[in-house]
Design a protein that fits this description.
By secondary structure, this protein is an all-alpha fold. It folds into 2 domains: 47 residues, Hypothetical protein, domain 2 (Endonuclease III, domain 1); 53 residues, no CATH class. 57% of the residues lie in helices and 0% in strands. It is built from 6 helices and no strands. The longest helix has 19 residues. The radius of gyration is 16 Å and the shape is globular. The chain starts with a helix and ends in an 11-residue tail after the last helix.
Amino acid sequence: MYRTPQDFLRLEQEELEGEIRECGLFRNKAKNILATCRELVDKYGGEVPATLEELRSLPGVGRKTANVVGSNAFGIPAIAVDTHVFRVSNRLGLACRECPQG
């Protein structure tokens, strides 16, 4: 069982790939998971950072993931919108790619 970044860092990338193979893009995800765990341990003392900016600085973490983690773990008011929802919202005029807040 993997509960901490340190638990994941005991794995080789190939081992983690085997654990997550079913979820697709498993090689890249395994690489990012291990890189993120390394950064969490080295830079944040093994804790997940609590700001959207710090979350987005982690390997493989984009705006959507940062918003999900920020809102669920830290109560940050954020809405997670994937690429497809954003594209449709933009076409309908509900969102603006050029607007400061998306």
